[in-house]
Specification:
148 residues, mainly beta, 59% strand, elongated
């Protein structure tokens, strides 16, 4: 069973594409409204723990363990530029899962929201993401992306 202070790591492969309206000024880029579609595949100790919890016979325990999922995000982002290639970014988003598998243990919407902070250096961005979802689920993520 899970203990309150227990932690487990997870890793993911995350591919996304999106479109947005961008208003560019010399020192600030504003992306007022954008939409992103993403594919996530999660793996690691956290997924193994979820598999163990599914096997526990507890009617009060709800486990949604969907390793591969498609998501959508509506977002707004601002980039404060220190040069043409470098910037500090801050963003807000809200989203949900597309095609969540309904089971006898879970059905309904799975929505989430978050804030991002990033440092863009040329074609690379280091991001810190704080996200919260339903049932007081919260997570923090550190990411590295490359612009193609």
């Amino acid at each position: 069973m899970a203990r309150e202070s227990e932690t487990a790591n997870f890793y993911n492969i995350h591919l996304k594409t999106g479109i947005n309206y961008t208003y560019t000024r010399p020192k600030v880029d504003s992306r007022f409204l954008g939409v992103e579609l993403a594919y996530n595949n999660e793996f690691g100790d956290y997924q193994k723990k979820l598999e163990e919890l599914i096997k526990v016979d507890d009617s009060d325990l709800i486990v949604v363990n969907q390793k591969s999922m498609f998501t959508y995000n509506w977002y707004s982002e601002y980039a404060f530029k220190s040069s043409n290639q470098d910037a500090f970014t801050v963003g807000l988003y809200v989203g949900g899962l597309i095609g969540l598998e309904e089971t006898d243990m879970f059905s309904g919407d799975a929505t989430y929201r978050g804030i991002t902070l990033g440092l863009r250096l040329k074609k690379y961005t280091i991001s810190l993401i704080y996200e919260s979802g339903q049932n007081e689920i919260q997570s923090s993520k550190l990411g590295l992306t490359n612009q193609l």
